[in-house]
């Protein structure tokens, strides 16, 4: 079992391949302190998704160690590990039901008031209230009637309710209007407070406000630093 974590994440000499003989990550090293916000950038196929997938142990590494609060993630159950992490993929998962249900999925015990408070905190409330039935509006699996940015806002509210110490976000790439982009940026700042986060970043606003930027190419970290340093 993974004990309750604070959220420190360390990669130490991590080597990884999906198929034998084809190395994807070659000696990756970094340490994220509690509350750090890492933006991960780099060309397509560089290994960005691979790195974040390894944190939640979707694959076993060839050699090296991945430590959370100093504990080797291979020494705990996958279930107890994932329980403490929030993962938000690019195409946010929406199931068929109301918007209220979709947000409450983050924490089944949350009351309607909790859901609304979370939505307000991440700047999702106003767009939800502009829909014909507000929180009771029906949406479906394909997220029809919701833009990519709106789906991402719903996933922020959901993640806030789940309250994980480590957050992983693959930012939406599809075109997002400036107004939604502003909401996403504000909502994200609220969501990130007090958590360690790894964001595969496509938007300059996210990159600028991260405490560290990791530039990955061909499975290697080429540069690490703040926006001003790079
Ligand atoms: P993008 O910006 O396009 O999402 P990325 O930086 O996230 O790219 P990864 O998905 O981490 O890149 O892929 C890194 C490398 O690993 C690529 O060469 C890719 O082809 C390969 N790869 C990714 N997933 C698998 C898989 N399941 N099996 C085999 N190879 C894979
Ligand atoms: Mg990717």
Automatic annotation (TrEMBL):
Annotated GO CC locations: plasma membrane
UniProt superkingdom: Bacteria
Positions of the ABC transporter domain: 9-230
GO MF annotations in UniProt: ABC-type oligopeptide transporter activity; ATP binding; ATP hydrolysis activity
Keyword ATP-binding recorded: yes
Keywords, ordered alphabetically: ATP-binding, Membrane, Nucleotide-binding, Transmembrane, Transmembrane helix, Transport
Main location: membrane
Compartment annotation: Cell membrane
Name of this chain's protein: ABC transporter ATP-binding protein/permease
Organism: Anthropogastromicrobium aceti
Parent-record interval covered: 346 to 575 of 596
